[in-house]
Amino acid sequence: MMAILNLGSMGKMICFAVLVLHLMAPSMALVGDLVGQLTSVENSALTNIVDLLTGLTGTLVPDLVAALLPTLQQILDLVNTVLGLVQGILSALKIA
Q: Do 1 and 24 belong to one domain?
């Protein structure tokens, strides 16, 4: 009790926590209302967002993979070349 009255470090922490909770309460209430509205009705905005994301991943991901495939193939060829060189060097060192 003395720490609160004295406003030492514990009192300051408690005052800060109360202030933060007081300032966050309206925001948390708005978020709660928004989530309630999005999830309350069938065929709601949340369902529409999920459908949109599902459609995007259905078309966007294959197109992205198709566009990146040549670059990924070149990287794989480069890695295989480096591994072949390392294997050749290790074989040469074993013989010597």
A: yes
| Cβ neighbours for 37, distance < 8 A, ≥ 6 positions apart | 44, 45
Asked whether residue 58 falls in the same domain as residue 91, the answer is yes
pTM over 0.70: no
**C-alpha dihedral over 63, 66, 68, 70, to 10 degrees?**
-160
Count of domains observed in the chain = 2
Nearest by Cα to 49 from 57, 60, 27? 57
List, for residues 53-79, the tens digit of each pLDDT value.
777 777 777 777 788 888 888 988 899
Let me know whether 48 and 93 are in one domain: yes
